[in-house]
Write a structure and sequence with these properties.
Elements: H1 5-14, E1 21-24, H2 31-42, E2 47-50, H3 55-63, H4 69-76, E3 89-92, H5 98-108, E4 116-120, H6 127-130, E5 134-137, H7 143-149, H8 154-165, H9 171-187, H10 191-200, H11 206-224, H12 227-238, H13 240-245, H14 262-274, E6 279-282, E7 291-294, H15 311-328, E8 333-337, E9 343-350, E10 355-361, H16 369-376, E11 385-388, E12 399-402
Parallel strand pairs: 1-4, 1-5, 2-3, 3-4, 10-11, 11-12
Antiparallel strand pairs: 6-7, 8-9, 9-10
Helix pairs in contact: 10-11, 11-12, 12-14
Length: 415
């Protein structure tokens, strides 16, 4: 299925001088498929090497002296050494062999025309090594990618155009998009689940596939983190459904066990966030111990039953989806609350002019007007955004957006 990151790969390919491409993302998000489809589509041939499925080969390359890496790579593929600079390479799951990557980059850093793509489910490279790469993260399917996958890609242009001009969509189109978006909230953005849905033309096996995706993440925690950290990671993950159901979604360690503190689990939380197994939302103006945790894909929330979402479950998934989207677009977001029980779901920090954009996710027709007034009295507010099931609405005071238009967000949300 078509992914938005393919455009980034094309632009990278067309550059006269390019660094090797480094793509990270949670297991099952489609890194290998995207990289190989890209290589097949734009080149006559390519070479693929997986360190995950060939542990002996990973150990062999890891142990080689730096000076022998390129010749060993050429010998493995039975190629003249000079050819390895001119053929696309896909190196998969390099977290099994990080030393190989480090040493290899010392050998090839002066060659600026490589078509080399490195993939990893776990972000194991140092900051200094990353500087030698073109780095990107692959996220679960956005709603526009979902529309393309189900053959409704014309809606992407329609939504984008109305997002830009803030004009109402015809009611029949608006309600069709709301229905399709609800379908997306049920299925989620993981390619394996999406393929099952497309193949079966039914949601009958969707929850089973989502369960498999969650088990893959738990397996990764258990086998890739240190033993003590892995145990804590699994404990944290096991509480996320319950954490998100609470009226106040701030992470509470007593849901793991009484007496647990942030410092005791800080390493586990950092592991989960760094490797895109959870998204962390911090509280604006508060210390690091005030935060919320969300799934890497909203469909991993297991509160849903009987192939339908309650209003509460839908709200949780919608909030998770919006945070996913903001993370993908590298937008600086937090939440905000005050002692008076005033709260804002999401706050964007516009760093260019040090202003803030509160984002309210409306439900049941209720509005957090008092909270917005309280927030505006403390911070310089640029815009107020309300996301709901309503159509695009022209309003001088607020930006009112339907939930299906969130994928259109840019770095600054302006009127």
């Amino acid at each position: 299925m078509k992914r938005n990151l393919i455009i980034t790969l094309q632009n990278w390919m067309e550059q006269e001088e390019r660094k090797p491409f480094y793509m990270i993302g949670m297991k099952g998000v489609g890194k290998t498929y995207l990289a190989c489809e890209f290589a097949k589509s734009f080149f006559d041939s390519y070479l693929y090497l997986s360190f995950e499925h060939n542990k002996e080969l990973a150990a062999y390359f890891e142990a080689l002296p730096e000076s022998e890496l390129l010749s060993a790579l050429a010998n493995y593929f039975e190629l003249p050494e000079e050819m390895i600079f001119n053929i696309p390479f896909v190196f998969d799951e390099i977290y099994h062999c990080p030393g190989f990557v480090d040493k290899l980059m010392h050998q090839v850093q002066d060659n600026n025309q490589l078509y080399w793509i490195f993939l990893s489910s776990y972000d194991v490279l140092s900051a200094s090594t990353k500087e030698k790469f073109c780095c990107h993260t692959l996220f679960p399917l956005q709603f526009d990618e979902f529309l393309t996958a189900i053959g409704k890609d014309w809606y992407v242009e329609v939504i984008t155009a109305h997002y830009k001009n803030r004009k109402k969509l015809p009611d029949i189109v608006h309600h069709e998009l709301l229905s399709t978006f609800d379908e997306y909230l049920w299925i989620g953005g993981m390619p394996d689940v999406m393929n099952e849905y497309l193949d079966m033309e039914s949601t009958v096996n969707v929850m089973e596939r989502q369960h498999i995706q969650k088990q893959m993440l738990l397996y990764g925690m258990e086998h890739e983190a240190e033993e003590k950290t892995a145990y804590k990671c699994i404990q944290v993950y096991s509480t996320i459904d319950e954490q998100l159901k609470k009226q106040n979604q701030k992470f509470q360690f007593n849901l793991i066990r009484k007496g647990i503190t942030y410092q005791m689990y800080k390493d586990a939380i950092e592991f989960l966030v760094r490797h895109n197994m959870l998204y962390r939302l911090d509280c604006l103006g508060k210390d690091e111990q005030q935060f919320k945790l969300f799934y890497p894909d909203f469909s991993l929330n297991y509160s849903a039953r009987n192939n339908e979402l309650t209003s509460v479950e839908r709200q949780i998934r919608l909030q998770n989806y919006i945070i996913q989207t903001l993370r993908e677009k590298k937008m600086n977001c937090k939440f905000w609350e005050a002692k008076s029980q005033a709260s804002i779901d999401i706050v964007l920090h516009n760093e260019n002019d040090n202003t803030f954009t509160p984002i309210e996710i409306k439900k049941d027709g209720k509005s957090k007007t008092k909270s917005l007034i309280s927030f505006s009295s403390q911070y310089d507010v640029r815009n107020i955004v309300r996301i709901s099931g309503s159509n695009f609405v022209e309003n001088d005071e607020n930006i009112n957006l339907p939930s299906y238009s969130v994928f259109c967000f840019e770095n600054d949300i302006d009127k």
